[in-house]
């Protein structure tokens, strides 16, 4: 089978999966409900604290403002202006 045919098959499968997930609505998958139950029973205080810290660093105002500005400042201090520019643009596009 030619490579383009495989690509078309994969695009069709991805489109079908997307339509199926969209048609389901916002209800969680059974495996997600099961995994949440397993993880809530296996709670470890240190891991929970670490998880909350990583959530703070990777989401919300800290991740949108402090991480990109801080990273850009570090790259500028290291005299890497192109890296700083690339980093800042990548962070802005990612947040957008």
Q: How would you describe this protein?
A:
The protein is an all-alpha fold and 96 residues long. The chain is built from five helices and no strands. Helix 3 packs across helix 4 and helix 4 runs antiparallel to helix 5. The protein starts with a helix and ends with a helix.
Task: Summarize the topology.
Blueprint: H1 3-24, H2 30-41, H3 45-58, H4 60-77, H5 81-95
Helix pairs in contact: 3-4, 4-5
Helix content: over 70%
- Report the biggest beta sheet as strand number plus sense, adding barrel if it closes: none
Number of strands: 0
Computed over alpha carbons, the radius of gyration is: 21 Å
Q: Supply the helix-strand structural class.
A: mainly alpha
Strand content: under 5%
Mean pLDDT: 88
Q: Please report the distance between the alpha carbons of the first and last residues.
A: 39 Å
Instruction: Specify the overall morphology.
Output: flat
Low-confidence stretches: none
Secondary-structure element pattern, one letter each: HHHHH
How would you name the oligomeric state of the polypeptide chains in this document?
single chain
Helix run count? 5
């Amino acid at each position: 089978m030619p490579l383009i045919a495989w690509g078309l098959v994969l695009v069709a499968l991805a489109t079908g999966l997307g339509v199926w997930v969209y048609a389901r609505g916002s209800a969680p998958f059974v495996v997600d409900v099961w995994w949440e139950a397993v993880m809530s029973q296996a709670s470890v205080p240190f891991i929970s604290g670490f998880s909350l810290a990583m959530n703070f660093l990777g989401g919300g105002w800290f991740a949108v403002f402090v991480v990109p500005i801080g990273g850009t400042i570090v790259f500028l201090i290291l005299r890497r202006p192109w890296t700083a520019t690339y980093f800042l643009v990548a962070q802005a596009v990612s947040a957008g």
